[in-house]
Amino acid sequence: MRLQRQLRNIRAQAGKVVSPDAVAMLDRVVADLKARGAELGALRPGLQAPDFALPDQQGRTVSLYETLARGPVVLLFYRGEWCPYCCAQLRAMQLALPQLTAAGARLVAVSPELPDHSLSMAERNALDFDILSDRGAMVARSYGLVYRVPDDMRDFYRDRGVDLGIRHGCPPGQPWHLSIPATYLLAPSGIVRFASIDADYTQRPEPQSLVDLLHDRVPAH
């Protein structure tokens, strides 16, 4: 099943179990982010991707530019293990992994969650690529993706057992932050060749589009 259909199904199911007021609130948050131009400050094609080194789900440190030395990188920023849209995207990317690998690329996913949640994400979804923990969302900030979670959205998640402060390892009382979901295709030089950045967290690009771009636009070296 194509990822877009899966995402539509998730939203339809959410509409059956979440109150109309809550759905409207979440939609308002997305609309406000777009109205404020939250996506516009994100790293764009043609620019150099900031380097980073983060722990993966096994506690090993993964360096972006060491990975790029072996070929192109598909870099995903996702919200967390608790987000069904993120899980659907990462599972779809796992299915596309043989094609990405055959095209010489490596797949790396980053969230602000602690490594235990990265490990859970990988195990629950049978993911066979690097799931990195960006504690404090410092890397996501360097890519221009971070926003503060509004109070009503925070309360909505907390009421459903999703405490981002605990999941992110933040001191009690600190504001919650998330990153706008983003999918990048990086050439081995670190130049961004493609970027999909959408404050609407229900929207993600099809994995096949990245496979096609790898064949058409990204050099092997």
UniProtKB/TrEMBL annotation:
Catalytic activity entry: a hydroperoxide + [thioredoxin]-dithiol = an alcohol + [thioredoxin]-disulfide + H2O
Cellular component aspect of the GO annotation: cytoplasm
UniProt-recorded Gene Ontology molecular function terms: thioredoxin peroxidase activity
CDD domains reported for this sequence: PRX_like2
Keywords: Antioxidant, Disulfide bond, Oxidoreductase, Peroxidase, Redox-active center
Gene3D superfamilies assigned to the protein according to its UniProt record, in alphabetical order: Glutaredoxin
Its job: Thiol-specific peroxidase that catalyzes the reduction of hydrogen peroxide and organic hydroperoxides to water and alcohols, respectively. Plays a role in cell protection against oxidative stress by detoxifying peroxides and as sensor of hydrogen peroxide-mediated signaling events.
PANTHER family noted in UniProt: SLL1159 PROTEIN, THIOREDOXIN-DEPENDENT PEROXIDE REDUCTASE
The family this protein is said to belong to: Belongs to the peroxiredoxin family. BCP/PrxQ subfamily.
Protein name per the record: thioredoxin-dependent peroxiredoxin
